[in-house]
Amino acid sequence: MQAPSTPVNEDSRLKSLKELDILDTQPEERFDRITRMAKRLFDVPIALVSLVDENRQWFKSCFGVDASETPRDISFCGHAILGDETFQIEDALSDPRFADNPLVTGYPNIRFYAGHPLSTPDGEKIGTLCIIDTKPKSLSADDLIALDDLAVMVEQELAALQLASTDELTCISNRRGFMKLADYSYAMCRRQKISLAIAYMDLDQFKPINDEHGHAEGDRALKLFAEQMCGSFRESDLFARMGGDEFVVLFTDTEAADAKEILQRFAADLEAAAEENKLAYKLRFSFGLLDVDFAAFPSIESALEQADQLMYQQKSCQR
Questions:
Q1: CATH 3.40.50.2000 applies to domain 10-163
Q2: Which architecture, in CATH terms, is 175-317?
Q3: Between the N and C ends of the chain, which has fewer C-beta atoms within 10 Å?
Q4: Does residue 113 register a pLDDT over 70?
């Protein structure tokens, strides 16, 4: 088996994927209608909108296969994002790159695969619209054009997500909306020598909430977390959901010591809200708190990266 190579632009590709804030979200009709159309049009049992993350391919839309993701190293889509055109395997058993792939030798028994790369508006290939059959198959020139057209439809829906500045689930700013405002605040504080602190937060044990109580309960936890942010933080604080179970707060005219006290009050308020809502689990979080040194961190991106690293260090110490 041949694992897919890593694209030369992997860092920027993953950054664009993360900024969409789409991974691990619920199915959406705007994507499902396209995969249903592909399934019917090409008379195949499986059609997917597959997004290639760092170590997995995750299915935003999935028809015909009982899985939400597979490892990236055995994915066909990992190969497809390396090119610009449709990646087609007519008979996987006859292809030495895939003949012993577990997705071929076992469920879902892939024989035919065709995946067209999906690009963001800035040109990063983040996944594919793909069709799969359990028997050998070949696409005609007209078929390839049709699959390309459907992929463009998916890309248009992805572009609409990228343009949005509010997180649909929690109704607070998403990464895009935060960055627009944070860039301005960061530049102003640096210019006027105003103190600035950044807290990058990650919910603790969020995956078990989804696994044990269902994704609807996971969504409820995220919404409650965001609601408490709105109630606990000050009007001058800028906060957002950055993606998945990660959140950020930008404290202007605030030293890190004061920001830590605010976060501790927020943690207490969050615990009280969880008890009031009779949650069957604890709603806690880890955070990385950075007292910004503008000489060391000339941009909001560099400061966020450091705060993110500090958060993961704290999370690692808790294990």
A1: no
A2: 2-Layer Sandwich (3.30)
A3: C
A4: yes
Q: Residue 63's closest CA among 34, 101, 24?
A: 34
- SS3 letters across the chain: CCCCCCCCCHHHHHHHHHHCCCCCCCCCHHHHHHHHHHHHHCCCCEEEEEEECCCEEEEEEEECCCCCEEEHHHCCHHHHCCCCCCEEECCHHHCCCCCCCHHHHCCCCCCEEEEEEEECCCCCEEEEEEEEECCCCCCCHHHHHHHHHHHHHHHHHHHHHHHCCECCCCCCECHHHHHHHHHHHHHHHHHHCCCEEEEEEEECCHHHHHHHHCHHHHHHHHHHHHHHHHHHCCCCCEEEEEECCEEEEEEECCCHHHHHHHHHHHHHHHHHHHHHCCCCCCCCEEEEEEECCCCCCCCHHHHHHHHHHHHHHHHHHCC
Torsion of CA 179, 180, 186, 187, to 10 degrees: 140
Beta bridge partner(s), residue 202: 246, 286
Mean pLDDT of 97-125: 95
Examine domains 10-163 and 175-317 and report if their fold is the same: no
pTM: 0.60
**Could you give the angle at which helices 215-232 and 206-213 cross, rounded to 10 degrees?**
140
314 contact partners, CB below 8 Å, separation of at least 6: 286, 287, 288
pLDDT in tens, 246-276: 999 999 889 999 999 999 999 999 999 999 9
Domain ranges, ordered by start, for the chain: 10-163, 175-317
Query: Are 182 and 66 contacting, i.e. CB atoms less than 8 angstroms apart?
Result: no
Q: In the chain, pLDDT over 70 holds for what percent of residues?
A: 99
Residue type, 30: R
Count of CB atoms situated within 10 Å of the CB of 141? 7
Dmax (CA) of the chain: 66
